[in-house]
Amino acid sequence: MGFNVEVIDLDLQGFFGYKYIFNPAIVRNDDGSFLLICRLQDHLAEGYLGIGLLDNKFNPLQATTIVRYSPSMMGAANVMLEDPRAFVHEGKIYLYHVESGSSFYYFCYTVFGMMNKDGFIEGQVILDYKKNRKAFNALKSLGLSNEKKTLPQEDWLVDKNWQFFIRDDKYYSIYQAGQKNEVFRFDFPSGAIREKYVSYNNLQWNYGRISGGAPPVLHGDGDYYSFFHSWSEWKDPNDSRPWLQRKYHIGVYVFENAPPFSIRKIASSPIFSGSDTGELAEWGHSVVFPGSALFDHNTREWIIALGWNDQQSKVIRFSHEEVTKALVPVTNLSFLFILKKELNPYLRLIKKAVGKIYRSVKTAITSINNN
């Protein structure tokens, strides 16, 4: 089914003075206005966070500040600040974003912390989970450089697209979603990892791998609503490139409000997808990326702030009724399917190791025969 979506363009080009202003997040202030956080850049090796105010119609009011430096990296390496996402809990604003190397590619890590309405960022922590802290440490050890260098793929460390939320004064993040759903709990501000919750389901989504998006929202019906993004092959782009081009989609799934936070339902079709027309960024993908989600209790509408083609910012609105009508139940997976899914990574490692041993032995035998 198609969603009836109202699209609102955010007129931010003259607001911060940058060419590209995209991937926004918004949180509502007590007076009905919105605090905006977005990504700013004039060229590909640049990334800053712009913070400002919008009125209740999403018109620019005031540019508050621009965050140009990473409080975590402290100038030890050149980094871009990207993809801010924000939410409010008990009157406090929580901000998380991605930082990546602008001199050494590809290192990306996620930073979680807090900010005030003046844009002051505090309490930032780089969680030591999977590759996240390793990416930060690797980039820091490489240090400052004026040259641009892409390291071998086996050295890349990328961890991003996490989705943070707070439940019963405990801090959580969705690490991955889909048939395998992984959520972890951590302490803040210490960053200590406490628990991991894994659940499985027979979720059906035919628009690419489910990835991160807006922070989940606890709805009045007792469940969390998670607005995510995914991408599929763009088979007939209006502005073609000599590589596979992507079309991005925004979807939503619903999960339980207590550990292990199992997924219960999903809308089987996208709420909003990238356009077939319009100006594209250099890499030629039709991009939509959700940075925040708000539920308007008065109108019973969802408000999603999103990035458009890595160049612009938009807000979309749509009714909660449409979402609930589109949701379909998610069923359980069999034990054998789960076992196979968990063993596959280990089997691939064994296969890789055996192949490496085989090639080494073959090379040695060939060398002996030649001698």
Description:
The chain is built from four helices and 26 strands. With 371 residues, it is of the alpha+beta class. The chain folds into two domains: 8-333, Glycosyl hydrolase domain, family 43 (Tachylectin-2, Chain A, 5 Propeller); 338-371. The longest helix has 36 residues, at 335-370. It is globular and about 80 Å long.
Helix/strand structural class: alpha+beta
Strand content: 35-45%
Q: What is the CATH first-level class name of the largest domain? A: Mainly Beta
Point out poorly predicted stretches.
none
- Please trace the helix and strand order, writing H or E for each element: EHEEEEEEEEEHEEEEEEEEEEEEEEEHEH
The name CATH uses for the topology of the largest domain is: Tachylectin-2, Chain A
Helix coverage percent: 10-25%
Mean pLDDT: 93
Shape: globular
Number of helices: 4
Computed CA radius of gyration, to the nearest angstrom: 22 Å
Sheet with the most strands? 7 strands, antiparallel
Distance between the termini: 70 Å
Number of strands: 26
Oligomer: single chain
Give the count of structural domains.
Answer: 2
Defining traits:
371 residues; alpha+beta; Tachylectin-2, Chain A; 2 domains; seven-stranded antiparallel β-sheet; five-stranded mixed β-sheet; 4 helices
Concise description?
The chain is built from 4 helices and 26 strands. It is α+β, with helices and mostly antiparallel strands and 371 residues long.
Fold topology:
Elements: E1 6-9, H1 13-16, E2 20-28, E3 34-41, E4 48-54, E5 60-67, E6 79-89, E7 92-101, E8 104-105, E9 107-115, E10 121-125, H2 132-142, E11 149-150, E12 157-158, E13 163-167, E14 170-176, E15 180-186, E16 193-200, E17 211-213, E18 217-218, E19 224-233, E20 246-255, E21 263-267, E22 272-273, E23 288-296, E24 301-308, E25 312-319, H3 320-326, E26 327-329, H4 335-370
Parallel strand pairs: 8-11, 9-12
Antiparallel strand pairs: 1-25, 2-3, 3-4, 4-5, 6-7, 7-9, 9-10, 13-14, 14-15, 15-16, 17-19, 18-19, 19-20, 20-21, 20-22, 21-26, 23-24, 24-25
